Amino acid sequence: MTDATPAAPERNDFIRQIVREDLASGKHAAIQTRFPPEPNGYLHIGHAKAICLDFGIAQEFGGRCNLRFDDTNPAKEDPEYVQVIQEDVRWLGFEWNELRHASDYFEVYYLACEKLIRQGDAFVCDLSAEEVRAYRGTLTEPGRESPWRNRSVEENLGLFRRLRAGEFPDGARTLRAKIDMASGNINLRDPALYRIKHVEHQNTGDAWCIYPMYDMAHALGDAIEGITHSLCTLEFEDHRPLYDWCVDKVDLAGHPELMAPLVAKGFPNTAAKPRQIEFSRLNLNYLVMSKRKLLAMVNDGLVDGWGDPRMPTLQGIRRRGATPASLRLFAERVGISKQNSLIDYSVLEGCIREDLDAHAPRRLAVIEPLKLVLTNLPEGHEEFLEFPNHPKDESLGARTVPFARELWIEREDFAEVPPKGFKRLVPGGEVRLRGVGILRCEEVVKEGDTVVELRATLDPDTRPGGRAVDRKVKGTIHWVSAKHGVPAEIRLYDRLFTVPDPDVDSDGKTYRDFINPDSRRVVQGYVEPTAAGAEPETRFQFERSGYFITDRYDHAPAHPVFNRVVTLRDTWSA
Ligand code: ATP
Ligand code: MG
User: Fold this and answer.
1) Protein residue closest via CA to atom 4 of ligand 1
2) What's the distance, CA 530 to chain centroid?
3) Along the 574 residues of the chain, how does pLDDT read in single tens digits?
4) I need a labelling partner for 397 at 20 to 30 A (CA). Which of 60, 102, 188, 470 fits?
5) Number of domains observed in the structure of the chain
6) Ligand 1 centre from 237 Cα, in Å?
7) Which of 164, 192, 212 is the C-terminal boundary of a domain?
8) Are 227 and 94 members of one domain?
9) Burial (0-12, 13-18, 19+ Cβ within 10 Å), 145
10) What is the CATH number of the domain that holds 41?
11) Do residue 26 and residue 165 come from a single domain?
């Protein structure tokens, strides 16, 4: 179910056009991309868009894609994130060419910065963070040059070595690029390249007490790996001049001595000049997607961890039951452009339904049960009926469904006082039992106001092969044999937020105030035996109800647990 990608429009976005031209003109013999997550949280559906683009383009054009952890901020990073990110990328259906860490390159970054110092392109600055801010200027006013900007090369080299040696406390000094304090682009006003942080790193331990800043590390990481097309989201557009500055001033491709520490560790020297191209972020309504807010929701117990089935993380979406193919389809539908837009959550649900409708076997399950007894069948009557697994795909085969005198039906398929237009079972009324025949409700058994049982008769002539098999009634309902049905825990999930824009703070309210209290409801239902016996992470359509998956962690045949992936139809549209 997870391998076939359903039909999707031809991919011809502006990035693929650039790649095509670069291959046709011979600018690149082969393309190399990378997906560069920072391991400071779990991946979310927005990252899926970037993954499908980075890995997808490499695949389509016969190129390669690396997975690179941009792990330059040790305080926020964790090996757990490093593991889960790898699992998520593979689950989405992609495999990296090489697994890299920006921290693999720390020595190269360091040598690159010594080169910048020698060229007069970087200096050690003694301003505090607060002073740096004051000197930076604003969008309308130029900044002022640091008083430390004109230190000699020797003094800068000496100080930078002492930074590395750990002689100064956090924040005492930085290494800064010497670019242009009057630039209209604030990113070019002598940005920091290195900062002091006496913090242990998840990959390099206590080898370093200075860490490179993201812009420099990212640009040089791409250059080191010979990335041809470095794809990132639009907020980095203003950083591109700095990206190019770092790549050009350091010129790793022209300076193999800077790559020597990597070559000594067994890495090939693939240094080349990369090109950064920006595309719009994925934004989905009814969600929050910043890692910072997701982390806060986890820490504050608003959800059951990063992998809660209501979370927009890939772990959450997976546990909830979406297929990798449906996420790839979603990424295609959303497309690649430079226009920021807000995608409706129903687009994602539509992709999930489309994939599951085509591939998920059908099963009978009753979610909120009511007992129904067919009084004209003998006590102990039982039959084993053959049901096709899929109405449109014979290759999915058939299964045996036990049928008996006592059944569970859906409580909401019966109405003592039917609302207008109700087509299902009413006292004295008839309805078709899916795959069996027509029954008539003869008696309603109540305890107080509560209906506890229906007693009905089955018309034998309407059974398959009977002479009135074509007789028409308005409604068809599903059922599970009470004797054979297996009790199951059914987790009914819905959208986590009640409003389309939980991320927009208004009237002193934040996303925390918009959590949907009905986003998780647990009921006890009954499923046919072949559903209960399924492996974890098996998806089904429960006829007339929706799509369900056996829970990845809690499901066992003796204690079946199903998560609702999505309802059959969109229940949120007006
Ligand atoms: P957040 O802002 O939620 O912390 P991030 O952008 O900092 O996320 P990274 O780990 O840096 O997360 O992201 C890795 C890659 O995924 C980057 O190239 C980034 O541009 C891309 N990415 C992140 N969020 C989205 C999104 N919503 N849509 C498309 N691509 C995204
Ligand atoms: Mg980021």
Assistant:
1) 291
2) 30
3) 444 444 444 678 999 999 999 999 999 999 999 999 999 999 999 999 999 999 999 999 999 999 999 999 999 999 999 999 999 999 999 999 999 999 999 999 999 999 999 999 999 999 999 999 999 999 999 999 999 999 999 999 999 999 999 999 999 999 999 999 999 999 999 999 999 999 999 999 999 999 999 999 999 999 999 999 999 999 999 999 999 999 999 999 999 999 999 999 999 999 999 999 999 999 999 999 999 999 999 999 999 999 999 999 999 999 999 999 999 999 999 999 999 889 999 999 999 999 999 999 999 999 999 999 999 999 999 999 999 999 999 999 999 999 999 999 999 999 999 999 999 999 999 999 999 999 999 999 999 999 999 999 999 999 999 999 999 999 999 999 999 999 999 999 999 999 999 987 777 888 889 999 999 999 999 999 999 999 999 999 999 999 999 999 999 999 999 999 999 987 766 4
4) 470
5) 4
6) 14
7) 212
8) yes
9) middle
10) 3.40.50.620
11) no
Within this chain, do residues 391 and 467 fall inside the same structural domain, yes or no?
yes
Looking at the domain assignment, is residue 68 inside a domain? yes
Pocket test for ligand 1, best of 15, 77, 233 (most atoms within 8 A of CB): 233
Q: Do 44 and 70 share a domain, yes or no?
A: yes
- Select which of 76, 197, 273, 281 is catalytic: 281
Q: Which residues pair with 490 in a beta bridge?
A: 523, 562
Shared domain for 395 and 442, answered yes or no, is yes
Extended strands (E) in 71-126: 99-101, 122-125
Asked whether residue 7 is assigned to any structural domain, the reply reads no
Core vs surface per residue 431-440: b (16+ CB within 10 A) or e? bbbebbbbbb
CATH of the domain at 111: 3.90.800.10
CA of 38 to the centre of ligand 2 (A): 6
In terms of domains, do 200 and 112 share one?
yes
Distance CA 453, CA 236 (A): 63
Structural domain boundaries, residue 227: 20-102+214-284
Pocket test of ligand 1: the residue of 47, 297, 342 to mutate, having most ligand atoms within 8 Å of its CB, is: 47
Residue 44 Cα distances to 294, 326, 444, angstroms = 9, 15, 50
| Residues 446, 382 within the same domain | yes
- Verify whether ligand 1 is closer than 6 Å to residue 34 (CB atom): no
Q: For residue 10, tell me if it sits in a domain.
A: no
As beta bridge partners, residue 562 has 490, 550
Whether residue 118 is contained in a domain is answered as: yes
> What is the pairing mode between strands 210-212 and 229-233?
unpaired
Contact 312, 284 (CB under 8 A): yes
Per-residue tokens: 362:
């059908």
- pTM exceeding the 0.85 threshold for the entire prediction: yes
Ligand 1 atom closest to the Cα of residue 294 is 3
**Do residues 452 and 406 lie in contact, with contact meaning Cβ atoms separated by under 8 Å?**
no
Same domain, 34 and 85: yes
CA of 84 from ligand 1 middle (Å) equals: 16
Asked if residue 50 has its Cβ within 6 Å of ligand 1, the reply is: yes
Closest residue by Cα to residue 37 from 327, 233, 209, 234: 233
Q: Is the CB of 177 under 6 A from ligand 1?
A: no
Of the residues 439, 459, 478, the one at which a domain ends? 478
